[in-house]
Amino acid sequence: MPIAPLDLLVHASNILLLVAYSVRDILWLRWFAVAAALTNIPFFLLQDTVLWPPVLWACVFTVINLVQIWYIYMQRRPVKLTGDEHRLYQLGFQSIRPREFLELTVLGSWHDASEGEEMLKAGKQPEDVSIAIDGTVSMTRGERLVGELNPGQLIGVTLALTGEPSPVDGHFRTQGRYIRWSVPRLRKFLEARPELRTAVLAHVQQDIARKLYGSVAGSAA
Description:
This protein is an alpha+beta fold.
C-alpha cells in the first residue's frame, strides 16, 4: 500500500515519540517530545479541512515542554560558590548537592565575629543555629573551660532541637566568621525538601557524634 507524503509526518512523529520514551534523561525526553509535536503540526494544517484542535493541543504541549526544558537547563547550570560558601561546603557538606547547599546558605546570614562575641548564653535557649568557618568557640561554665568548637561544628543545634536552655556560655576565643540560621525559618525550609532535610539531619548526627567522641576522649585524657 503506497504511503502518502503527509502520512510520513505521522510516522516520523511517532518514531520520535518512541525514541522519547526510550531515553532515560528527562531533558532528551522533552526535546524529542517537542520534535514529535512539531512534526505533527504540518500534517494537521495541510489537510483539506485544517484540524485546528490537534494543532492547538500540539502547541500547548510544545510550550509546556519548552518551559520545562528551560527549567532543567537552569537547574543544571554550574553552581558557583563564594569563598565563604566553598569553605563551609568543604567543612562537611559534600553529601549535599551543590545547588541545594547554595539554597541552604542563601537562607542564612554571614557574620564577622569579634573576639569574645557571645554565641550561647547559659540558661537561655538559642534561637539560631550557627557554624563557624573561621575561629574557635570556647564553651565555658562559670570560669571553667569545658570544651571548644572548631570550624565546621554546629553551634546550638542540639539545644535548638530539644528546646533546652544552654548549660554553658559560648564565646569566640578569637576573631572569626560564621553563618547563622533562624531555627523556625530553617525548619520550615527543610520540611518542604525531604531529601535535603535527610542530608542535613545526617550531618547533624555526625556532628553530635564527633562532639560526644571528643568529650569522651577529653575526659579519658
